[in-house]
Each structure stands twice: as C-alpha cells, then as structure tokens.
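> example.struct
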C-alpha cells in the first residue's frame, strides 16, 4: 500500500483518540452519557417497521455471525407465532413445565432445543477452557470451611455439583448433540440454570457467566411468548437480513496537523500524537518506510450498515436502532450526525465510549461525511485535554487489542 494514498480523516481521528486513550469518554462528552451497558456480545442491530396487519423487522449482522443469528431468530419468531394461539402459564420454570410430551409444550421444547443447538459449542468451549472440572472437584471434596471460603452455603452445594457434572458431561467432544433426547436437553437447561445462579460469586469463570446468560435469555423469551394471551391478536412479522459491507483498506495519519489543519498551537500541544509509538490496535500496522502513517482494514459496524440500508431504501421505521451490544463512539456519532444532516430523530440505546480506529463510515453522501468530521474534531480536542489533565501527559500508550 502506497503512502501517497490520501489518509482517511475519520480513521485518523479515531486512531489518535485511541492512542490518547481518554478515560471514560462518556463522562467527558455529554452526548455519550447513557445507562450502564449490559455485558453481552456484539452480533446484530435491528429496526422495526410496525403495521396494522404485519410488522417488518430489519436486522443487520456481522458476516461471521449471520448464519447462527438468523437460525436463532427464525426459531424465536416461530415460537412467538405458535404461542400466540395458545395460553400456557408463564409463572412456572420452563424446565419443569415443558419437559413433558404434550402437544401444547412442543413449540417451547423445540425452541429450547434450537437455542442449545446454536449455543452449545460456545458453552462447551468455555467449560473446557476454564477447566470446570477443577471447580467441581474442589466443591465435591471440600470441607465446610472450604465452602465458606468459596462463599457457598451448605444447601447450595448439591445443585452446583449436579449442574457442573451435567455441563462437563455434555461438553465432552464425544457428546453427540444431534442424538440427544429432549430429556437430556432439558437436563442441560436445568444445569445451566443451577450453575448460572453463581455468576456473582464467580464473575471470572466464563462458563458460569455464559450459562447464566443463556438460561436467563431462554427463560425470559419463553415466559414472554407463553404470556401472549394478554397481547393483541396475532400479527405476522417479516424479517429482512442485511449483511455488513465488505471490509476495505485505509490509511490513517498520525500527524495531528494533517487531519486537523488550522488547529491552535495550544490545542495541538494537548492532542499531538507522537511520530513514533509502540502500539497499534488490532487490524492495523505501520506503513513501510513511514513513521507518520498506519494502514489497516476497516469494517462497517452493524449500526452503520442498518442506518445506510434504511436511508438508501427510504424506509419508514420506528426511529430507534436496537443493538445486542452497547455501540461504539463512532456509531453513536454517526447516528447523531445523520439526524442533523437528514432531519431525522433516530435514537440509540446501549452506548459506550469505545474507540475503534478500524471503523468504516457508510457512504451516504459527502455532506454526511464532512459533517461527521466536523463533529468529531471538537470531541477529539476535548478528550485530548481531559487525558492530559488526568495523566499529566497528552499521550498515554495502551497495549494492542485492549
């Protein structure tokens, strides 16, 4: 890649912001303030067009997640539509209520089976990687004093031991999920419920947190679906899946004066990025024979992909973009700028101040791009000043991929 290529201004600003590494940007920039973000995985962003007789759901997904996400969503929609014509109690734990063979419970059992079909691989990997067998042995053989040191009550031990035993057994690479009976799957769900209850006591054990998220999500969806007799009559929902755009190569400059021409000397002293630095984020590397430029491969995030699709097709949707993970700083700023340029009122929940220098701006016209650049520059100056005050230095390198 030639260093003669024009550096991308937005990529340069985001890279510089990442290098400056401001602490909690959302506490510095008022427009980033938001509720505490949930701890889940980025996979999709969605918007809904609501109609009298039908709804239309538009979902943008990461290319690597599209297949599993789409299959899971289809299972969820199928469950919702089937349960709209049934009235089952929602106040009984699903592992107990729907482990039988009644026809009324069949949609729920099918849904639970499909979810574990999609998610068992991750749960199994977490169980093996975190060596759940070590905790099982410790709890099974430990004295009451040991249980006390682990924060486990005497009456809690049996359910945790049983749950871990089941999860370890079904996480074995020899376990064939395709041949698993419904009883085995519901046993796994009960195990995930039991183990997940200890997520606050073992927040660093990934498999326990995963079990909690998985079982809680299933219980919530099933409870909602089985309580629909209080809801309006059945409304069909169509789904349009939108793939994120292909990644593209770009160049970013580390010279502040190149992407912020005309900046005052005082401001430049706060936000200047050194010509040489130790770390670059994942997806970026140095340009050969240049200390002033970095190259990388950028990707359009789900929120940008969805917003571009809505804009290009002039869709009338509810002005709220939902996301499975708190969206990054650049996506938040994109929506904010989009509203200003096109006189819209889209809202984003689940925001955070994460800087992603490989973020790709969707192509929606020169006016949007230029306005976004204008909106990013003052933020960069403010963040640079804040970082300087917090650290006593305008630059604080951070390890790659952190």
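> example.seq
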């Amino acid at each position: 890649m030639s260093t003669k290529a024009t550096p991308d201004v937005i990529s340069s600003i985001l890279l510089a912001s990442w290098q400056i590494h401001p602490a909690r940007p959302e506490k510095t920039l008022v427009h980033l303030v938001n509720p505490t973000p949930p701890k889940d995985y980025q996979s999709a962003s969605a918007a809904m067009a609501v109609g009298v007789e039908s709804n239309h759901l538009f979902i943008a997904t990461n290319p690597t997640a599209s297949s599993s996400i789409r299959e899971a969503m289809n299972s969820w929609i199928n469950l919702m539509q089937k349960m709209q014509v049934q009235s089952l109690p929602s106040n009984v734990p699903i592992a107990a209520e729907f482990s039988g063979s009644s026809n009324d419970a069949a949609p729920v059992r099918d849904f639970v089976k499909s979810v574990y079909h999609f998610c068992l691989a991750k749960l199994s990997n977490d169980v093996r990687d975190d060596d759940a067998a070590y905790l099982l042995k410790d709890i099974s053989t430990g004295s009451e004093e040991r249980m006390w040191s682990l924060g486990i009550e005497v009456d809690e031990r049996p359910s945790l031991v049983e749950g871990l035993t089941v999860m370890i057994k079904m996480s074995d690479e020899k376990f064939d999920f395709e041949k698993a009976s419904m009883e085995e799957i519901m046993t796994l769900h009960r195990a995930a419920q039991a183990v997940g209850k200890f997520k606050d006591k073992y927040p660093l054990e990934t498999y326990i947190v995963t079990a909690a998220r998985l079982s809680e999500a299933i219980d919530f969806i099933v409870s909602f679906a089985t309580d629909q007799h209080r809801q309006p009559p059945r409304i069909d929902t169509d789904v349009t899946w939108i793939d994120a755009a292909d990644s593209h190569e770009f160049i970013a400059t580390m010279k502040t004066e190149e992407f912020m021409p005309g900046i005052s000397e005082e401001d430049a002293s706060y936000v200047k990025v050194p010509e040489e630095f130790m770390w670059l984020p994942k997806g970026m590397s140095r340009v050969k024979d240049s200390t002033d430029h970095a190259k990388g491969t950028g990707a359009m995030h789900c929120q940008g992909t969805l917003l571009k699709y809505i804009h290009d097709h002039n869709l009338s949707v509810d002005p709220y973009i939902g996301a499975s993970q708190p969206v990054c700083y650049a996506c938040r700023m994109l929506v904010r700028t989009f509203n200003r340029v096109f006189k819209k009122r889209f809202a984003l929940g689940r925001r955070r101040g994460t800087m992603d220098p490989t973020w790709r701006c969707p192509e929606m016209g020169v006016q949007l791009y230029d306005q976004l650049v204008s909106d990013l520059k003052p933020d960069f100056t403010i963040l640079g000043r804040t970082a300087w005050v917090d650290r006593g230095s305008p630059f604080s390198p951070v390890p790659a991929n952190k």
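> remarks
Residues 64-240 form one domain.
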